[in-house]
Amino acid sequence: MESMASIKPFNITYSIDPLAFEPKEEVILRSLSTMKEAFIDQTAAEAALARGEDPRIVEVYMAPVPHGEGFLMANINVVYPGKVGMEYFMTKGHIHDDPDHAPEIYITVKGTGKLLMQNLAGEYSVLDMAEGLINYIPAPYAHRCINTGSQPLVYLGVFPADTERDYSFDSKNFKKLVVERDGQAALVDNPLAK
Amino acid sequence: MESMASIKPFNITYSIDPLAFEPKEEVILRSLSTMKEAFIDQTAAEAALARGEDPRIVEVYMAPVPHGEGFLMANINVVYPGKVGMEYFMTKGHIHDDPDHAPEIYITVKGTGKLLMQNLAGEYSVLDMAEGLINYIPAPYAHRCINTGSQPLVYLGVFPADTERDYSFDSKNFKKLVVERDGQAALVDNPLAK
Questions:
Q1: Where are the domains of chain B?
Q2: What is the secondary structure of A85-96 as a DSSP string?
Q3: β-strand A113-119 against A141-147: which pairing, if any?
Q4: Does any CB of chain B come closer than 8 Å to the CB of residue A1?
Q5: In angstroms, rounded to a whole number, what is the distance separating the alpha carbons of residues A116 and A49?
Q6: Euclidean distance between CA atoms A109 and B162, whole angstroms
Q7: Does domain A12-189 have CATH number 2.60.120.10?
Q8: Does A72 touch chain B (CB under 8 A)?
Q9: What topology is assigned to B4-189 in CATH?
Q10: Taking CB atoms and an 8 Å cutoff, what residues of chain B touch A160?
Q11: How far is CA B14 from the centre of its chain?
C-alpha cells in the first residue's frame, strides 16, 4: 500500500470563468451519447442524437492522490446546463461501495442545482446546491446532482480515496426525478422506479 | 460505535459577509489571551493585553457529525486579520494523531493567506490560500494557517472525523514563521525552533 508519506502537500487550482482545473490525474467526460440511459425521456434523447446533437453533460477532474486507504480524494465536478425532454442535465448517480465508511462532502463553487439522495431502505432526500452551501452525504446514500440553473454547476467533492463508485444504483432505483415544470424545478415520481 | 446510517443528509450554510454558519455542533474561539504563546513576539503580545486589547484571532465551527470512524468532519475556520508584532494572526497549528490515515483538505472561501506545513522529518512546505485554491495536506504534516491579508481568511477543512488534533507540535517546532517585512508577507527562520 502506498504510504501517506509518499505525497507532498500540493494545491489544486480552479478557475470558474473560464472553467479550468490543475492538476488533474484522471478526467471523466460524459456526453449525451454515453449516458443517455440515465434520462427518463428516451425519445427526446434519441431525437437529439439523431439531429447530431451530443452535448457535454458531465466532467469530473480528480486530484493526483493515490486511490488508497487513508487518503482523501478531491474531485472537481461540472454539470452543464440543459435538459433532455423536461429532465435537467445531471450526473448518472451512484452509491459508494462501503456503506459505513464512505461519506462525501460537496462544496458548490458555481451555479445552482439539486442533490438527490436515496438510501437502500428507499428513504430519499433533496438538498439545494448553491454557493454558500456545503452538502453532507452520509455513506449509505446514493447521490445524483442535477443542474437546475442556466450556468454550469461546479462543485468540489471530498471522499475517502479508497471508495469505489457503484453505478448499479441507477435511474431505475431513484424514486424521484427532478424536472422542469412551469419554468421551475419540480420533484416528481420516477415512473421507472422499481 | 455510531453507525453511518444514524445520520441523515444535511446542508451546512455559510455566509461570508456577514460571517455566519449553520448548523454548528462545536465552536472553538481563540483570542490573543488564550493563544499568546503561539506568537514569537511575547513583548508585543503582553503589551497589547496590558492595553486592554484582546482581539479575536481564530474561530472554528464544526459540523454536527459524530466524531467516529468512517465519518468526515467539515469545519469552517476563520482567521481574522491582524498582527502580533510583525507576525500575522494565525492558527496555533497542530498535527493529526494518525500520520497514515488523517489527511486534510482546505478550501478557501474568502481572504488570502499562507498554509505552513512541516512533517516529522522537518521538511516544510508553504502553500498559498485564496479563492480558487484547494490545499491538500498529507497526514504526516503539521499545519498552520496565517492570514496575510486585510480581511478575514475563511476556509473549509475536511478530514476524517475520528482524527485527534495534537497541539504539542507548536511554535517551538515550526522551523519557519510568516511575518510582514517591507509591507509583504515573508518566510523567515523561527529563532525558537528546536
A1: 4-189
A2: TTEEPB---BEE
A3: antiparallel
A4: no
A5: 26
A6: 27
A7: yes
A8: yes
A9: Jelly Rolls (2.60.120)
A10: 72, 160
A11: 18
Q: What distance in Å separates the CA atoms of residue B147 and residue B142, rounded to the nearest whole number?
A: 17
Residue B41, number of CB atoms within 10 A of its CB: 17
How far off is chain B from A17, nearest CA to CA, in Å? 11
Please name which of A177, A115, A139, A99 lies closest in space to residue B8, comparing C-alpha atoms: A139
- Residues of chain B with C-beta less than 8 angstroms from the C-beta of A8: 125, 138
User: Which grid cell is B126?
Assistant: 508553504
Q: What angle do CA B166, B172, B173 make, to 5 degrees?
A: 60
Instruction: List the grid coordinates of A179.
Output: 424536472
Phi, psi at residue B143, to the nearest 5°? -145, 145
Is residue B18 less than 8 Å (CB to CB) from chain A? no
Q: In angstroms, rounded to a whole number, what is the distance separating the alpha carbons of residues B61 and B41?
A: 28
Return the C-alpha cell found at B130: 485564496
Q: For residue B76, give Cα distances in angstroms to A115, A150, B61.
A: 21, 29, 5
Q: Which of A78, A80, A89 is nearest to A44 (CA)?
A: A89
Which helix (H) or strand (E) segment is A47 a member of?
Answer: helix A42-50
Distance in angstroms (rounded) separating the CA atoms of residues A125 and B194 = 52
Query: pLDDT tens per residue, chain B (194 residues)?
Result: 456 557 899 998 988 888 888 887 788 999 999 999 999 999 999 999 999 999 999 999 998 888 888 899 999 999 999 999 999 999 999 999 887 778 999 999 999 999 999 998 999 999 999 999 999 999 999 999 999 999 999 999 999 999 988 888 888 899 999 999 999 999 999 998 87
Q: CA B65 → CA A75, A159, B23, B45, B77, distances in Å?
A: 22, 15, 10, 36, 16
Instruction: Compute the distance between CA of residue A55 and CA of residue B75 in angstroms, rounded to an integer.
Output: 37
Mutate to test the interface with B, among A100, A144, A156, A159 (most CBs of B within 10 A): A100
Quick check: B117 and B143 in contact, CB under 8 A?
A: yes
